[in-house]
From TrEMBL:
<dbReference type="GO" id="GO:0003677">
    <property type="term" value="F:DNA binding"/>
</dbReference>
<dbReference type="Pfam" id="PF07508">
    <property type="entry name" value="Recombinase"/>
</dbReference>
<protein>
    <recommendedName>
        <fullName>Recombinase domain-containing protein</fullName>
    </recommendedName>
</protein>
<dbReference type="InterPro" id="IPR050639">
    <property type="entry name" value="SSR_resolvase"/>
</dbReference>
<feature type="domain" description="Recombinase">
    <location>
        <begin position="2"/>
        <end position="114"/>
    </location>
</feature>
<dbReference type="InterPro" id="IPR011109">
    <property type="entry name" value="DNA_bind_recombinase_dom"/>
</dbReference>
<dbReference type="InterPro" id="IPR038109">
    <property type="entry name" value="DNA_bind_recomb_sf"/>
</dbReference>
<dbReference type="GO" id="GO:0000150">
    <property type="term" value="F:DNA strand exchange activity"/>
</dbReference>
């Protein structure tokens, strides 16, 4: 359930606003619109420095970004009907007014463009190729931030303890693959090379014999 809401026990499937969390959301919007930030990460840092809490914890990038992307905060809730996504007005769940939302969307575009320009794609060589040794599910490649630096890891979504550094794991696999193919291909290549040399020698010999016959005439 999104931050700012809780289940409405009086109406099945409905939500209601949590007043304290709604006030936090409104303060974060005001902070965003009234301030200038180098990037969205800096804004998230400022949110935490202001002492605003996300369910008793510090805000993460994705949590803050969701406040500006999810239309539930302007009273529009998305439902899934089988495979179809349906948007329905829920005015009693509105926390942010339309004008504030639109101003925030315009400002968010600036940070979205910066993210696209600054973000370097990370290629995961073993994507969808390795499984968790505990639950046997596919291990995904993902980017994480460690000491302020983004690094790649392979991590199981089910077993948090199963995590491998991208560079180390990929290099290890490459080393084993090289050895494997060298062991297989070396004898085959030697045999192929020997066959090519023999064929070339045979062709060369036939040419020499042909030239000798021409000279003899």
């Amino acid at each position: 359930m999104n931050f700012g809401y809780e289940a409405n026990l009086e109406v099945d499937g409905d939500w209601k606003i949590v007043k304290e969390e709604a006030e936090t959301i409104q303060k974060i919007y005001r902070l965003f619109l009234n301030g200038e930030f180098k990037n969205f990460n800096q804004f998230v840092k400022v949110v935490n420095e202001q002492g605003y809490l996300f369910k008793g914890k510090e805000w993460l990038y994705g949590n803050v970004r969701s406040l500006f992307k999810n239309k539930i905060y302007i009273g529009i809730r998305d439902y899934k009907d089988k495979e179809e996504l349906i948007s329905a007005p829920v005015p009693h769940l509105r926390i942010i007014d339309q004008n504030t939302w639109e101003q925030a969307q315009i400002k968010m575009q600036q940070y979205t463009r910066e993210s696209i320009e600054e973000e370097e794609p990370m290629f995961f060589l073993l994507k969808d190729l390795i499984e968790c040794f505990e639950c046997e599910k596919k291990i995904k490649g993902k980017k994480i931030k460690r000491l302020g630096v983004k690094i790649g890891v392979y991590q199981c979504d089910n077993c948090n303890s199963v995590k491998y550094g991208k560079e180390i794991l990929e290099q290890e696999v490459i080393n084993h693959a090289n050895k494997f193919f060298n062991d297989i291909l070396s004898p085959m290549f030697k045999e192929f090379l020997s066959r090519v040399v023999d064929e070339q020698a045979s062709i060369h010999k036939k040419l020499e014999q042909g030239l000798d016959k021409v000279k003899a005439r």
